[in-house]
Amino acid sequence: MPYPDVSTRLEWKARPPIHPATVLDRKPDRIIVHHTSTPNSPDMSLDHAFRLSRDIQRFHMQGRGWADSGQQLTISRGGIVMEGRNRSLAAIRAGKHVVGAQVLGHNSHTIGIENEGTYMTEDVPDALWGSLVEVCAWLCVRYRLKPAKAIIGHRDLNNTDCPGDRLYERLPDLRTAVALRLDPQAVLPSPIPDASDGPEAFTSDDVNGTVPPFRLK
Asked: I need a surface site. Which of 37, 134, 168, 214 has the fewest CB within 10 A?
């Protein structure tokens, strides 16, 4: 399976970060699904997606005082995947972890995906959903993670509505779709442990899955 087409920071014209992101020589153990809590725009264009990334970066840097965009990856409602925090794309490709600012108290071991929109009552567009499945499958391969235990929502670790009730309800479907994307003959994933117990509650066997039977591009 080739990795998804990810637009780089250069392509969406990111501003320089206040300082370079920290890169850890190890993998994250959880993939965090977010929503941006922004309007559900009908604009599915590339220009809109790139503007979204610039808006997120500006809000995170000027509104929250962070060094850069908090999340490692962003997906627009049109399904366009973009690099978030600086150095994220290179780190993912190398099997390393860029420390973000997307889950309070858990940034050292999680990688975050911001999904454009607000999904308390509305469902995600098909284009976004398809890209989210592909991105999660890619991350599971790069980091040797099991979808059934790696993919969780922001609210599993922090007191928040994110990623919205509708998207959160679909996380079991997401885990199943990713598992089947990696291996069409896969057994359906079992329920994940209680993520509120923190990363110490998971064994190394929970994290280190078998590499799926396909080659990366």
From this structure: 214
The domain tally of the chain equals: 1
| 69/54 Cα distance (integer angstroms) | 9
Determine contact, residues 174/132, Cβ cutoff 8 Å: yes
DSSP state of 125: P
Global confidence as pTM: 0.85
Dump the DSSP string for 166-202.
HHHHTHHHHHHHHHHHH-TTPPPPPPPP-GGG-GGGS
> pLDDT per residue over 92-132, tens digit each?
999 999 999 999 999 999 999 999 999 999 999 999 999 99
Q: Burial-class residue 83 by CB neighbours within 10 Å (0-12, 13-18, 19+).
A: buried
10: in domain: no
Find the DSSP H helices in 46-170: 46-58, 88-93, 126-143, 147-150, 165-169
Look at 137-146, 154-163, 186-195 and tell me which has the smallest mean pLDDT: 186-195
Residue 14 falls within a domain, yes or no?
no
